[in-house]
Specification:
The protein is of the alpha+beta class. The protein has 11 helices and 11 strands. α1 packs across α7 and α5 crosses α6. The longest helix has 16 residues. The chain is globular.
Length: 338
């Protein structure tokens, strides 16, 4: 309630504290839409934006553990029928997950966003991005971290090719279903877990926010960007996901597999879908964190795997909603660890 009283706060927020045993605490406050009084509930689904990336990396990890591929397989081998620039000949899926392939959003994001008007099947669209992005020299420096959504669009194309079925099916079959994320899906959430109404995302500055109907095409990024950021789920689903990342029950993926997702290369700041750094509150151990937003929603998650603690805040006020979400997650960390 205090967080929602912050100037610029989103219409609604959901938050949770997670341990290896599951969701330890959660809270939901606020309204589903500005100008209305329908309260958000624990059954609402929240769009998690770029926090989808870690799930795409996890789906690939499942394919690795099944022996269908590996992290160091060159993209030139995966896409042997595509003319790839020599600079990308040795680029691997692992490079894509860590944003060190030499690909940058400024030169590719306009192409990705224009896909909303593309009528081709999304798998064909991703294949076209492979040809466009890898068919010319890097716009960045290979080996140097540069965050770019195109990396995960390409990873989705790798999944399409290796699994021989769309990433959309793979993320469901390898992540959502086996982890029991029953409220998870893709795109702007149309209804809550009970099949009734749901919170809507919002656009515009805090003083003039407008609720965006999830049924409209502009309520989310184009489906092409799915592997980089179009998942939605309930707070219980996200808690379950975070639980696995901090040492919870791991029959879904081996301990080594999970550790591989959250461990950066030496000297690099980013693991496979997670920003990493040591934190005092975590006893100096390495924490994982990420923010996500499709501009209408916002998600932030922070966790200390070695301490078995995770925290998240979900909101529907657009990226501007982080003005309340960030202080709230910091407050939760302090309250739980002191």
């Amino acid at each position: 309630e205090a967080a929602l009283a912050t100037p610029g706060a989103p219409p609604a927020m959901a938050a949770g504290i997670v341990t290896p045993g599951g969701l330890e605490w959660s809270g939901v406050r606020g309204v589903r839409r500005v100008g209305a009084d329908e309260a958000a509930t624990s059954q609402d689904r929240w769009h998690i934006g770029s926090n989808t990336k870690a799930m795409t990396a996890a789906a690939y990890a499942r394919l690795v553990e099944r022996g269908l591929t590996d992290w160091t397989r060159p993209l030139a081998d995966v896409f042997s029928d595509v003319m790839i620039d020599p600079a990308f000949a040795a680029t691997t899926p692992d490079d894509l997950t860590r944003h060190i392939a030499g690909l940058t959003d400024p030169t590719t994001l306009p192409l990705l966003m224009a896909a909303r008007a593309d009528a081709r099947p999304v798998v064909e669209q991703r294949a076209a991005v492979v040809r466009t992005a890898l068919g010319k020299p890097p716009t960045g420096t290979p080996g140097r971290f540069a965050y770019g959504n195109v990396n995960y669009v390409l990873l989705g194309a790798v999944v399409d090719r290796i699994a021989r079925r769309p990433w959309e099916d793979v993320i469901r079959d390898e992540v959502f279903w086996p982890l029991g994320l029953s409220g998870a899906g893709l795109g702007a959430p149309l209804h809550d877990a009970s099949g009734l109404g749901n919170a809507w995302g919002h656009e515009g500055p805090p003083h003039a926010r407008v609720a965006v109907d999830p049924a409209t095409p502009w309520a989310d990024n184009p489906p092409l960007l799915g592997p980089a950021g179009t998942a939605h789920m309930t707070l219980y689903d996200y808690a379950r996901w975070l639980q696995v990342m901090i040492g919870g029950e791991q029959t879904w993926l081996s301990t080594e597999g999970v550790r591989g997702l959250i461990t950066p290369r030496e000297g690099q700041p980013y693991a496979r879908g997670w920003i990493t750094r040591p934190e005092t509150w975590a006893g100096g151990t390495t924490t994982i964190a990420h923010e996500g937003s499709n501009t209408l929603w916002h998600t932030i998650a922070v966790a200390a795997p070695d301490k078995g603690l995770g925290f998240f805040v979900l909101s529907n006020g657009g990226l501007e909603g982080r003005v309340a979400a960030v202080p709230l997650i910091q407050k939760l960390i302090v309250e739980r660890t002191t």
